[in-house]
């Protein structure tokens, strides 16, 4: 089995992305993300958040500048990261457990270990009884739980999340935010989390990166001072929570 470090840092330097259509989606973005840090990215629609995440995840290339995951696997083709998108993108022809186990494809992990880890992670996201269910038998929130389980099951040092809870109702979102924080506390990793939810960003992140309208640049990086472990509901009553949310809203105006 391949082994990789438990966490990795990310360096983004002068990153610019121009699509062939002529759209400049990112313009000279610079950011350092520390080992094990949870960073949320917010910004107006179309400011290049997904573009940035796709470049970090190795799914697209930059026009200028570069982004590097440091302390991770040597080959760019073997980036030890997992990505969760707004759509859970489970394979409809595989049961939930098989979808989660698929993350181990070609990693050479013994079958018994895979079964144990899949069962553990499904239990952690509240899907312990659904390993043999088909994706179409799950609600939207349950599908997203399965997608989060698939991202965590191999314990990669880096996790990229692109509006993973964006399509869900508020109550499910808050529940999943808590589950994500518990998973992250159990197995630390560097997380880059794109969201439209300012409160969600402040709840989850160590720092919130605020991007400007297109072409996207990094307008501000706001540290979130609240202690951990956090609770996605109780944190709203923390002194300073509302002020921080308003400050970020003001930056987005
Ligand atoms: N494959 C592509 N080809 C051409 N232009 C693209 C492509 N993908 C994105 N864009 C453009 O790049 C800009 C940034 O898009 P991106 O999806 O990164 O923004 P975003 O901040 O994630 O938006 P949203 O919050 O609405 O999801 C937009 O103007 C978009 O039209």
From TrEMBL:
Record CDD domains: ABC_NrtD_SsuB_transporters
Listed InterPro entries: AAA+_ATPase, ABC_transporter-like_ATP-bd, ABC_transporter-like_CS, ABC_transporter_ATP-bind, P-loop_NTPase
All copies of domain ABC transporter, residue ranges: 10-238
Pfam family, one: ABC_tran
Protein keywords: ATP-binding, Nucleotide-binding, Transport
GO molecular function, one term: ATP hydrolysis activity
Protein name per UniProt: Nitrate ABC transporter ATP-binding protein
Organism: Vulcanimicrobium alpinum
């Amino acid at each position: 089995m391949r082994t990789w470090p438990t966490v990795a840092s990310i360096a983004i330097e002068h990153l610019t992305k121009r699509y062939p259509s002529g759209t400049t989606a990112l313009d000279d973005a610079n950011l350092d993300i520390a080992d094990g840090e949870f960073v949320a990215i917010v910004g107006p629609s179309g400011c290049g958040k997904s573009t940035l995440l796709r470049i970090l995840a190795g799914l697209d290339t930059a026009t200028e500048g570069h982004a590097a995951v440091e302390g991770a696997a040597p080959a760019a083709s073997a980036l030890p990261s997992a990505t969760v998108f707004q759509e859970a993108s489970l394979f409809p022809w595989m049961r939930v457990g098989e979808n989660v186990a698929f993350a181990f494809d070609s990693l050479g992990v013994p079958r018994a270990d895979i079964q144990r880890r899949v069962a553990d992670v499904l239990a952690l996201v509240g899907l312990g009884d659904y390993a043999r269910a088909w994706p179409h038998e799950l609600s939207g929130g349950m599908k997203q739980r399965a997608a989060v389980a698939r991202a965590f099951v191999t314990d990669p040092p880096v996790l990229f999340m692109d509006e993973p809870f964006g399509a869900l109702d508020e109550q499910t979102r808050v529940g999943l935010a808590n589950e994500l924080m518990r998973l992250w506390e159990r197995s630390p990793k560097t997380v880059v989390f794109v969201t439209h939810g300012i409160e969600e960003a402040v709840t989850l992140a160590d720092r919130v990166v605020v991007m400007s309208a297109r072409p996207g640049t990094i307008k501000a990086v706001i540290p979130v001072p609240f202690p951990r472990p956090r609770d996605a509901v109780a944190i709203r009553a923390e002194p300073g929570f509302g002020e921080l949310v308003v400050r970020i809203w003001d930056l987005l105006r």
